[in-house]
Amino acid sequence: MGRPPCCDKSNVKKGLWTEEEDAKILAYVAIHGVGNWSLIPKKAGLNRCGKSCRLRWTNYLRPDLKHDSFSPQEEELIIQCHRIIGSRWSTIARKLPGRTDNDVKNHWNTKLKKKLMKMGIDPVTHKPVSQVLSEFRNISGHGNASFKTEPSNNSVLTQTNSAWEMMRNTTMSHETYFNNSPMIFTNPGSSEIQTTPFHFSNHSNHLLNGTTSSCSSSSSSASITQPNQGTQAPVTNFCWDDFLLSDPVLPQSSQKQVVGSSATSNLTFAQNEHHFNRQAECSSQKIVSDPSRSASSFVDEILDKDQEMLSQFPQLLNDFDY
DNA sequence: AAGTCACTCAACCGCAGGACG
DNA sequence: GCGTCCTGCGGTTGAGTGACT
């Protein structure tokens, strides 16, 4: 006994929508409003599945939708949100006026994921790929240098999925946390979107390590519940800096710099991308040009590169010109 | 010019959950 | 409590298109 199909699929049209079909939906909704999509195709004179009509409306025809490309601010916000709640696209889309879950999902899959990977950041965990590999080795008991993995980003992602999912399932309700967070602000009468600052910090590190952010030096008041403290997480005045403060990935000196510099806290995704690209270029040149390197393994190369980046991070932060 | 490849994005699919009788 | 219907969601697919050879 399965669920009966929502409509007779053999008799409904599929594929791209025509202008006439769009016009029919628009005309119907303008008069009757939305509701009971299973009846709308018949009433609007469309040979389409109700589900398809709803999708067309919500993803394309809705008058409040934006059809232009994503702004850097929107991209930053998507990355921030994804780091906290993962692929809950509808929740993320609600933070972006005029964007649908489908838009956000597509943009993530086609652009943002690649950008992060290009910068050496695992788009699943939002950690440096080298750290993900290192943690995986610890988790899987392959703590020695003889551990080998395929030199592919996909393999890294696959290997870290289980840890990531476990982490998400055993910690606070990210969505509750997320939905209480004032992350996006739109100026009245302006289409300009403001977002909270973006950092390459790792919220997930708190969760993986089971440590709580100790933000006594910070004026913000976000509270993160430890996994062993239950799942209640009343959160107010969310601030991304709180994640950065105790980020074990960053050198402490870098973190202090960030705390002490409001300018640094305005680091944007685009700026980060630029610097990560520069770092990657410099690192790769060094690796290639250094004949003393034995290139023992792909993993070692990445770990070395990451160490290089970390050691240079304070300088990196100072490089930003605001 | 033609063929191939990579990318984008609209649309589809199946599942889950809520509402309701 | 159970079954049905509807809606929402996330993953996936494939047509269209541009870049490249």
Automatic annotation (TrEMBL):
GO terms for cellular component: nucleus. InterPro entries: Homeodomain-like_sf, Myb_dom, Myb_TF_plants, SANT/Myb. It is found in: Nucleus. Keywords: Developmental protein, DNA-binding, Nucleus, Repeat, Transcription, Transcription regulation. GO terms for molecular function: DNA binding. The keyword Transcription regulation applies. Its main location: nucleus. It comes from the Eukaryota. Residues 9-65, 66-116 form the HTH myb-type domain. The keyword DNA-binding applies. This is Uncharacterized protein.
